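Hi all, long-time lurker, first post. I run a small reading group and we've been trying to get comfortable going from sequence to structure in the token notation. Rather than ask abstract questions, I figured I'd post a concrete chain and ask someone more experienced to write out its structure so we can walk through it together at our next meeting. Sequence below, copied exactly:
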Amino acid sequence: MPSHRFSVGQMVRLVTTKGLSPAAAVSYTIEAAMQPYRNSPQYRLWNPELQQGRVALERDLEPVGSA
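-- Answer (accepted) --
Happy to help. Here is the structure in token form:
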């Protein structure tokens, strides 16, 4: 089983917003690590400012502040 790269409370952003509404949040806080989907770690995310949540695969995320 793959291990999770990000931890609960960590700020992340979506690598791409393709296919998302222009009003969708780009940065989120990790709320929970979830069971892998097709052998890829996934996370439950939350943006308190916009009151938006979503689930994303690890490959679609990068830490906030990364180059």
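A couple of things your group might point at:
The longest strand covers residues 27-37.
Residues 7 and 28 are 12 Å apart (CA to CA).
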